[in-house]
Design brief:
binds zinc ion, alpha+beta, 3-stranded mixed sheet, 20% strand, single chain, 159 residues
Length: 159
């Protein structure tokens, strides 16, 4: 496993445990070069789920991508990696329960939004804006206004 800090591929596992529901093995690793520690997760590959994108293209569900999307929305917000991981876990569980082999990306977007809504308003609006691709601009604006009314800092960072 390549160290995210220095790029070395030599590490040792310092801790290994199963997640609560047994669906994953969490390994705490220590880089043998720089001694930084990082965490890896081992999952059974879920080959059955295909995402239907907005333009109807299909692609396999990718936990990493989902995690990245949520992390981006949570950038500079007081949300821990652990919290983000737990959101991803929750969504994966929901997807499993639904049990479909294909699911529109917009459905997953809604799940993420529902989770972020509970966690952080700014992250929620960021994610919502990306996911809806401003298809419904009035929605997005009313969302932002609502947050401003509640006294949160308005959304300023645009990419
Ligand atoms: Zn390292």
């Amino acid at each position: 496993m390549r160290c995210p800090f220095c790029g070395s591929e030599k590490d040792k596992v310092v801790d290994s445990r199963s997640s609560k529901d047994g669906s994953a093995v969490r390994r705490r690793r220590e880089c043998l070069r720089c001694s930084e520690r990082f965490t890896t997760y081992e999952y059974i590959e879920n080959v059955s789920l295909t995402i239907i994108k907005n333009d109807q293209r299909r692609e396999p569900f990718d936990r990493q991508k989902l995690m990245q999307g949520i992390s981006t929305a949570c950038k500079k917000r007081p949300i821990s990696m652990k919290k983000i991981e737990s959101i991803v876990d929750k969504i994966e569980n929901q997807l499993e329960k639904i049990g479909k082999s294909e699911i529109p990306s917009s459905e997953i977007g809604k799940m993420v939004m529902a989770e972020l809504y509970e966690v952080d308003e700014v992250a929620y609006v960021r994610f919502a804006s990306v996911y809806r691709k401003f298809k419904d601009v009035s929605d997005f604006i009313s969302e932002v206004k609502e947050i401003e009314l509640k006294g949160e800092a308005p959304l300023r960072d645009k990419k």
